[in-house]
Predict the structure.
Amino acid sequence: MKRFAALTLALLLLGGTGALAVQDSAAVTVAAPAAVLMEKVTGTVLYAKGESAERAPASVTKVMTLLLAAEAVDSGELSLDDTVTASARAESMGGSQIWLEQGEQMSVAEIIKCIAVVSANDCAVALAEHISGSEAAFVQRMNERAAQLGLQNTHFTNCTGLFDDSGHYTSALDLAVMSRELLKRDWIKDYTTIWMDTIRGGEFGLSNTNHLLRSLDGCTGLKTGWTTLAGYCIAATAERDGTEYIAVIMGSDSAEHRNADAAELINYAFANWTLCPVADSALPPVRVVGGVAESVQPGISGDGYVLLSKSSAQSVERSVSLPDSVTAPVAPGQQLGTLTLSSGGEVISEVPLTATSGVERISAGGVFSNMLRILFCLPTPST
């Protein structure tokens, strides 16, 4: 069943700021059996077809492989300058590869480049072994990370996607979530946007498997894949004017149809939707009764943006509902009120306004001290 919507389910899962109305499903035609279109910042899902079906992902598996590597780099566990030594197992990998030889050494940066550009299975295994000691241990880590991300239709048995294993599967929605998480590491696009490059001192050429880099305006990646069981798959990403969309296609019957589906989804998104800040002015503080502080500052829960149709964004109205006061104690993150966005008299989104800090209840001694300060006009002590 084809649905074109900002799915409330995905917003709850991904921390988006609100839901959008269902749109005309005829606006986009996708031939593939499974597809998802997602906006990166809010996680809003604009299109979903067969999004939860468990399917073989082929080499789009490597989105998770790259995610774990990128997180290891960001945490300091791994350095892009570290040296990776290829094992016999890495050398034995078939499919897309750079023909690593046992004992051959490359930097992590070169290995990531080969995975991102040519989907090198030998490099994926070499990197997995370098990070976790063995591919099996790395795969366990992949599954643990999938669980942490709330992916309910994903299970990995390898780090490459090369093998048509019935126990190795994911869904279009889960792949979109993985891709969104990977894109939070902006530096990964230094590799996923490479069209052509070389390794081994210029002796071995690399050409990207993602041909959308040459045909889709603003394309930033991300990963292609194909096996007999999986069909043609892609997690395609594109950024224009600071907004980025993720289109996942699974099970297409050809590379051309896969790319056409992804491009149509992404071009539709840019033509019809826009990111809009939830608040257009500073929020007023709320007075706190019986607290160690006189007031608490409300803030916007979530990412601070909402995805709106371009027609709605032109006439969006905002209304803030906050109480005159709250009684201490106030917990950090406690909901204080609501910011409502509407257009044409219809509510588009309701965003919780929460306390940006906590305020403890004042003690009896504190009350007495405050009375003395007021009585004798003493200054309030600095904190």
Q: What stands out?
A: Residues 255-272 form the longest helix (18 residues). The longest strand covers residues 231-240. Confidence is low (pLDDT under 50) at residues 1-25. Residues 286-376 form a domain with the Peptidoglycan synthesis regulatory factor (PBP3), Domain 2 fold (CATH 2.60.410.10).
